[in-house]
Amino acid sequence: MDTIFWILSIITIIGAVMAITLRNLIHCVLSLILFFLGIAGHYFLLRADFLGAVQVLIYIGAVAVLMLFAIMLTRHVTGDEGPREVLGGKWWAGMGTAVIIAGLLWAIIRKDQIAQALPAGVAKTSVAEIGKALVGDWVVPFEAMAVLLTAALIGAVVIALEEVIRKR
Amino acid sequence: MSIPLGYYLMLSAFLFAIGLCGALSRKNAIIVLIGIEIMFNAGILNFVVFWHYKYFAVLTAQMFAIFAISIAAAESAVGLALVIAVYRYYRSVDVDQMTSLKG
């Protein structure tokens, strides 16, 4: 189990680092898929089977493919970006912020009592329980989520179609 | 399974910092969205880890994780639509060229 944790963690971190450092945008999204797969593996290792499946379906199946389409729609067909600068103007400020946040979180977690905890038995939740809870105790947030997703869908279509509507 | 909770929390904090670094320092708006997705995933991992170590009621953490994943999907759909709209206007998705509101 420990070995699997370390292997998955290394895969996840390599995927995340490559997703934000590579020059080619398509390669960035492919590394992001590696990162999502690592996170899904962590969910399976933590016995959250349903969330692992949801992670693969939604993130790899929908979000990553959506990003690939956005790259295809916004990039010039010439392919490589060439010697252009990939970092923004104040990149050192962003990287400094990230380093400070990582250091602060590391210091807090290292000193905290909770961080020493070991799992007290195996936690288990079946898919049937999740389904019953979604239409039982959690029905109000479930319906609110349905409204939010509809609004996001309509909003995305309206924003992306703006120019076409204006031309008519 | 004898990994202490802190290892997962440190992994999650590290991934959050990587995502933050990407969102703040890269020029391309799509990479900024990728950084935001990495931060979302680091946060959701925390819910699942605390569920596994029984710091939450049985179903609460999984429900929070499911709703957070749905919100992240909606956010990325709207974000990418905005990127496409911005590309139509500026012919570029570099965040430092969007300076219309700069004083």
SSE inventory with pairings:
The complex is a heterodimer of chains A (168) and B (103).
Chain A: H1 2-21, H2 25-45, H3 49-74, H4 91-111, H5 127-134, H6 139-160, H7 162-167
Helix pairs in contact in A: 1-2, 2-3
Chain B: H1 5-25, H2 29-52, H3 60-90
Helix pairs in contact in B: 1-2, 2-3
What characteristics describe this protein?
heterodimer, A: 168 residues, mainly alpha, Four Helix Bundle (Hemerythrin (Met), subunit A), 7 helices, 0% strand, globular, B: 103 residues, 74% helix, elongated
Explain what the structure shows:
The complex is a heterodimer of chains A (168) and B (103). Chain A has helices spanning 2-21, 25-45, 49-74, 91-111, 127-134, 139-160, 162-167. With 168 residues, chain A is mainly alpha-helical. Chain A has two domains: 1-79, NADH-ubiquinone/plastoquinone oxidoreductase chain 6, subunit NuoJ (Four Helix Bundle (Hemerythrin (Met), subunit A)); 126-168. In chain A, α1 (2-21) runs antiparallel to α2 (25-45). The longest helix of chain A is centred in the middle third of the chain and has 26 residues, at 49-74. Chain A is globular. The mean pLDDT of chain A is 85. Chain B is mostly helical. Chain B contains three helices and no strands. Helices cover 74% and strands 0% of the residues of chain B.
